[in-house]
Amino acid sequence: MSETEEALRGQIVWAMQAMESRGLNRGTSGNVSARFEGGMLITPSGVPAGELTPQSIVFMPTDRPPEDAGLRPSSEWRMHGGLYDARPDCGAVVHCHSRHATILACAGKPIPPLHYMVGVSGKPVVPLAPYATFGSLELAEGVAAAMDGGFSCLMANHGQIAIAPGVRRALAIAEEIEEQAAIYWGTLLIGGPKLLNEDQMAEVFRRFGTYGQKR
User: Fold this and answer.
1) Which residues of the chain fall short of a pLDDT of 50?
2) Catalytic residue among 3, 20, 67, 76
3) From 211's CA, which of 49, 67, 88, 169 has a CA 20 to 30 Å away?
4) In what order do the strands lie in the sheet with 58-61?
5) What pTM value is reported for the model?
6) Contact between residue 178 and residue 98 where contact means Cβ atoms under 8 Å apart
7) Which domains does the chain have, with CATH numbers?
8) Which helix (H) or strand (E) holds 206?
9) Residues 6+ apart with CB under 8 A from 139
10) Of 145, 148, 151, 174, whose CA–CA distance to 164 is shortest?
């Protein structure tokens, strides 16, 4: 196993365990993957985060179904593979059932521009992908279409998903989307949010271009 592969496997395990410890995921729900050598490394199906090891992460090509050998990959492998095919800038995928994002997804509510940090999604609005059965090609296609150049979306009656060049950034986006979902949920209880307008969000994205460290 190369040093790069070992590091990616470790990051995937870390992300799954971090999601559980931070309350973003529970039980065996959710999955994480990273692009690797013409395919992807992805969490196995039905294994709790606390039982994952780097060796239990499954490698599979993105251009064909998994082989019947060893641990089976996450049932959402089509969704991960579809994002890698559609987005050359995608190096990692994080999917979870965080509570407030899932509440909104089950209510059919995308997250509007109520706070400038909604822009972490890459868009002024966190979109909502239409419902399709988990693990299906229809879900994979719907998520890729809803993402449409952004970095995250909600999944109707399901949860949320985030992409980034690397695992740590994808998890950070998913964590921020959950925070924005919680804020939106809270505002709905007291009459609804006052939204930022198109010009205000455009300024947010301009500022994001020079925010933080660039090396």
Assistant:
1) 213-215
2) 76
3) 88
4) 58-61, 39-42, 31-36, 92-96, 159-164, 152-155, 128-129
5) 0.94
6) yes
7) 3-208 (3.40.225.10)
8) helix 198-208
9) 76, 78, 79, 129, 132, 133, 155, 158
10) 151
